[in-house]
Design a protein that fits this description.
globular; six-stranded mixed beta sheet
Length: 323
């Protein structure tokens, strides 16, 4: 009997361990991008919006030189019956130029983003179909599925993959995000010193420039930036306002160095609005935005099974305070 119990226990243990080992990564982890950041200085390091220990946007330019800049990428997941929409935001304390006087374009804070569209295929990880990246005034479309033909946006090219992960190339100074190094013209790829960020679960600051392997941590956008949406006004986290589906929301980070309040919130982008889209759709209603940007996709549901922002927006439109 003792021998039988040992055999059964061993079988159960093997089954449990095999099941635990086989559990797939959550889609936002499985597809978290490799980030090739062109860097001229620490101002090109990605970090958290509260890297200095507060949620005041207007002191980040000055505080950048006083605090560490451990790497953080904000993420969000929305889900329909057929797809996951994975949104990633990269934050920099400064948008700057090589000229310290910043005659043009400089502003405090910078938040640029990318979005991945992953088909649910029963594998747990899913199949990456397309990627969109934000670079200043434009959103660019990259296809990992030849069926993606483009709608209001043309397909710029294929998704660059590194060991199965999408790879993005980020400018120095202005931090526009591109899907290929060739397009990253403002970063001057031939002379670019690259900080290579990988989703290894730790929040590290690069040891220097260049850096071949710096880990970033994924941080839920809903529990951080979105939770601070009521922190609006001069001297606070966010400033400016726009209305989305009846809810008044901050459109930008508060900033007073050089350009005033010039860095958009992740939900406040106003790019690629052709086809009847409005500011906020790319973040809050990505299924609708992607259908317009990429054109018709087979078996593409626009009915959400996970989108916590919709309830928050309804509450805000009804006058409830942010939670």
């Amino acid at each position: 009997m003792a021998k039988i119990r040992i055999i059964i226990a061993a079988a159960v243990l093997a089954f449990c361990c095999r099941g635990a080992y086989a559990q797939p990564e959550a889609p936002h982890q499985a597809w978290a991008p490799v980030i090739q950041q062109c860097a001229a200085s620490r101002a090109d390091f990605i970090t958290a919006a509260d890297f200095d220990g507060d949620w005041i946007g207007g002191n980040n330019w000055e505080n950048m030189d006083k605090f560490p800049l451990p790497a953080v990428v904000y993420y969000d997941v929305k889900e329909t019956h057929t797809h996951w929409f994975l949104f990633y935001t990269l934050f920099h304390p400064r948008d700057y130029t090589p000229d310290p006087e910043c005659p043009v374009s400089c502003h405090e804070n910078d938040a640029e983003s990318l979005q991945l569209v992953v088909r649910k295929d029963g594998s747990g990880r899913g199949a990456l179909e397309l990627m969109e990246t934000l670079a200043h005034s434009s959103i660019m479309l990259y296809a990992n599925n030849p069926a993606v033909r483009g709608g209001t946006l043309k397909v710029t090219g294929p998704v660059t993959l590194t060991n199965g992960r999408p790879t993005v190339f980020v400018e120095q100074y202005g931090h526009g995000i591109y899907g290929t190094a060739r397009e990253n013209v403002m970063a001057n790829p031939a002379a670019c010193r690259v900080v290579r960020y990988l989703p290894l679960g730790r929040s590290e600051e690069p040891a220097g420039i260049p850096s071949a392997k710096t880990s970033y941590a994924l941080v839920p956008l809903y529990d951080t930036l979105w939770r601070q949406r009521g922190c609006m006004g001069d001297g606070r986290c966010f400033d400016g306002a726009f209305t989305y589906r009846g809810a008044v929301l901050p459109s930008s980070f508060d900033g007073d160095d050089f350009g005033t309040d010039s860095a958009n919130t992740p939900w406040g982008y106003g790019q690629a609005l052709e086809g009847g889209l409005v500011s906020g759709d790319w973040f809050f209603d990505p299924a609708r935005a992607i259908a317009v940007h990429a054109g018709p996709l087979d078996n593409f549901s626009q009915t959400y099974v996970v989108n916590p922002y919709m309830a928050d927006l309804e509450a805000a439109a009804a006058g409830a305070a942010p939670q």
